[in-house]
């Protein structure tokens, strides 16, 4: 055992806390929590024959050890979750960041709420539903909701005093057109409430409300409106018949099952609402998980509900969590009511846990057949690339750069990141030139790299800038490589740099570095891999260039209109989306925008008409 670790073990207290294990490169590879630090941490370093392979592998890679004492077990659990998300340790159970997953958002804080798909939950007063793992599933759900309860999706400013022309969605039955005055604020509000209840799984409540609403319209002799409600009732009832009933009482609960193999773990969550199974979400937990079943359940439950806004009153688990009482307290505070955690051994709940485990097993099998095979292929390509370029180590982290401009304007650069052979979209970054004001690809590349690696040397907390790549690729030839090397040399950084040169037909052709030139056509796998990186860097840079060009074009046209300042310009673009749509809009529609009015609307129409193409 290493002397530094031995000294740390001697100082461990009889108190709750979190322990952090680091490897030879000082990188955090495991974070754990303990009721009693002294007992838990020492158990890792005892010579035990029953130690599993995962734990043995973890311990063999530990170079240093540190710990943080907390006052309570609850504080330890929360701190462990925070540090896992911060460091993403290799050997921890790690639920993928749910911020990338889609949610359904209904802006109930607005007078006329709208429904949309978002990937980030904000504390803005809106209602969020999800998480949905598949984008297709969330789109289908939104389409269903809009058929049953035609809520708007547009960002129009709606005022009862200014009626607007309904859009196409109204005519095909996917919007009730509150902008046109077709529906009262009260009627629209009831429809939104029913949509929220439906998404929560409270369909029986929705049916009851719709029946009452239909009867009220019938009593008032508003038979057309009553018929619309009747059709919605039929649709909801038909959908309800297809759902399996597991409990006769209106019970809400989640059921969580896990499935393990020697190295991986999968989790499945079944959502029961009003006694009916309404959804399933499955995850593969990244990392080897050198933990007990109870510790894994602790980590998964906390990470899952940390990322999901909806917490039911009861959660049935396959394994007893190590910190069941603490988890219950944390989730109860989030829900605003008591949350019970149980591990059923018999009956319907136990059968559901078994079903959840089966779903987790299928998820892990799918992961093996797809992701693991793809990872193996990626490792093979990266090993080939290491050998081809004579690199010291396999390039697990690759960064690629490309420059795009419109002459001397919109001079931008892209930075795309590939980790373990796969694109990491969350780490992509883009740069708009500040110092370079004229078309000069070499100078633009140097400014980009100077800013990117300057952020690294300044200790940036941005994950994209916080580490160095194993390989740097630039779009271009020897000149681009020389420009990049000059910056790295000035900063004292040693990173292999190669240029992605194209042939006469602008296709990936060679890798060059000033000393060697490698023909990529000799190996189709390497060619496809480099081409995918080059195309992605080019796409991302061009996309930013076009965005800035379009923005300049839009702004310049509106800037020519007298009486239009920044606030009114933003209001117009928010209402119509583009200058083209403002040009096509009627005087009434333009004047309906807040702060515009009929007089200014006429000026806008005349000026934009004169600038039309």
From TrEMBL:
Transmembrane segments: none
Any GO BP annotation: SOS response
Domain UvrC family homology region profile intervals: 255-488
Domain UVR: 204-239
Function: The UvrABC repair system catalyzes the recognition and processing of DNA lesions. UvrC both incises the 5' and 3' sides of the lesion. The N-terminal half is responsible for the 3' incision and the C-terminal half is responsible for the 5' incision.
Quaternary context: Interacts with UvrB in an incision complex.
Claim: Cytoplasm is one of the keywords in the record: yes
Name recorded for this polypeptide: UvrABC system protein C
Gene: uvrC
InterPro entries with a match to the protein in the record: GIY-YIG_endonuc (IPR000305), GIY-YIG_endonuc_sf (IPR035901), GIY-YIG_UvrC_Cho (IPR047296), Hlx-hairpin-Hlx_DNA-bd_motif (IPR003583), RuvA_2-like (IPR010994), UVR_dom (IPR001943), UVR_dom_sf (IPR036876), UvrABC_protein_C (IPR050066)
Similarity section: Belongs to the UvrC family.
SUPFAM superfamilies cross-referenced by the UniProt entry: C-terminal UvrC-binding domain of UvrB (SSF46600), GIY-YIG endonuclease (SSF82771), RuvA domain 2-like (SSF47781)
Cellular location(s): Cytoplasm
Coiled coil stretches, renumbered: 200-227
Key words of the record: Coiled coil, Cytoplasm, DNA damage, DNA excision, DNA repair, Excision nuclease, SOS response
Every GIY-YIG domain range: 14-93
Listed GO CC annotations: cytoplasm; excinuclease repair complex
